[in-house]
Protein: TonB-dependent receptor
Amino acid sequence: MTLRISRPATLTSLAFAMAACYAHAEPVTATDAVVVTATRTPQPLANVISDTITIGPEQIAAAGAGSIIDLLQRQRGIEIARNGGAGTASSVYIRGANSNQNIVLVDGVRIGSSTTGAANWSAIPLTAIDHIEIVYGPLSSLYGADAIGGVIQIFTKKGKGAPALTAFAGYGSDKTREADATLSGATGGEHSFNYAISAGKEKSDGFSATRPGSTSYNADRDGYDKENVSGQFGVQIAPGYEAGALFLHSKLESQYDSGASAYDVRSKAELETAAVYAKAKFLPNVDTLLQYAESQDKGQNWSSAAAAGYSRIDTKQTDITLQNDVRIGADVLQLLYDHRKEEVSTNGDTALNRDRTTNAWAASYNARRGANLLNASIRRDNSVYGAKNTGSIGYGYDITSQLRATASYGTSFRAPTYNELYYSGYGNPANKPEQGKNAELGLRWDDGVNALSASYFHNRLTDLLVSTTPCPYAGYKSSCVYNVNEALLEGVTIAGATRVAGVNLAANLDLQDPKDETSGKRLARRAKKHGNVTADYSIGALKTGVELEFSGDRYDDAANKNRLGGYGLVNLYATYSFTRDWSALVRWNNIGDKQYDLARFYATPGSKVFAGLRYGYK
Structure:
């Protein structure tokens, strides 16, 4: 199928505009950045074939209060949907893939609900995050089930250098209050020790989650209260031998609407991750990692005063990972074993109270020969839904020291969720995994002064699990879910960055056609075009910035009957450093007070202001 773009001149114009700016630019890029997610081992970003971006500490600090969702919305290739304010249910779409077709990791620990298949984004604390890596495209051959659209890995703060304290406090619209602090550092010597402990709290009165027209509409404010604590500890036992532990605990209590009742309709979510690990260099060219990790996604809901209005669903995931990185000259052979156990406990449908285990073996090879880069990986996952084999191959060629062309092909799959397999009267234990086949071409220019990239992807999905009413199978009273549909996620992404006359400029544009090929309709809540433009300028201790977010129209339903209009938002922010240790932040989001929709009949933030004071030098 051919991608149809109504205004092809848009792509060309953006490229020429950026190229014209680059003629008089100054250095802005960081080609020496090291990333982990794309290959499961540290690699310079310049040596990574997969389309990868990082969101650094400075960007996160400038984001102010709010959800990680707001930060991700400003990145290329990503769209979001949310049922109200920062504390409500949210979805993240990577390159048009569903929220449950992407993997989310926190410090290498996989998180998410086994009943829905997606991470609870609203429960992830922005204040605990140091940086984020986003890898676009299928990574099932490295990470297993669900890595169809991509992988997002969140890294919490880690200790280094002399002991340091950082702290932040802020206040803004809707009586939004935020405070966080981190104590971190590291000792030197043969038996070095690093540590970081962070804690934070955020609370807001919020705004009504729904709009008039919704059957759940209630004009009251729907606020949230979120608190978190996290830590990382590592010790070098001897040269080449290291052990450590890490944890994250976040609790979110939020309100939502369920009609005009005076009852306080609300939910409570808890996200917990913990891991212990050991690293060893048994041979000079072999690095071994053994890790035991747990994550829990706990949810409680109070929809009415009646006993039937209370529900609880808890997911626990346990992972044991053994990874060996064998260095063969400049090449790396990676051998991996992964054991994953999922457990669900609920007070409702007892058919969901069960566990399942997945055992996986994988191998990958990363090589460089002069101007040629190559990676290849294979994996086999065995679980209750059967055995799945996935693989990928990628090639990169340095046309010049500044220009690289890449091509890749990979297969992926999404495992059926507990709801799709076991939910009484709806799920079917015979449901199979969804499958994806992705081909991709890329071109990247980076001269240390300017950066420009373009990627084309063609991701065909089969055996999509679709909920249908009425159910065509006997024994089901109403709706059910089964493998029936096919979809095509196809698109082009362009991104660039430069500096002109002291102004840092960056822009990205996604032109895509995420389509359900069985029905011929566009996938719900996904636009054909969306993007971002940012600019910042520093004058001494003052830094100012402007952000433009824009999206075309979307449909709220699979039948494409309920249209959500396109929108454009403008945000402003400024930071000022009083001294080496003290700085202030002011952010004004949606300065035009634009009313827009991310989900039908659900409210979105209007014009909001937030200001804060930060202590600590980074």
Remarks:
- The domain at 9-615 is CATH 2.40.170.20 (Maltoporin; Chain A).
- Helices lie at 9-22, 57-62, 68-72, 140-143, 418-422.
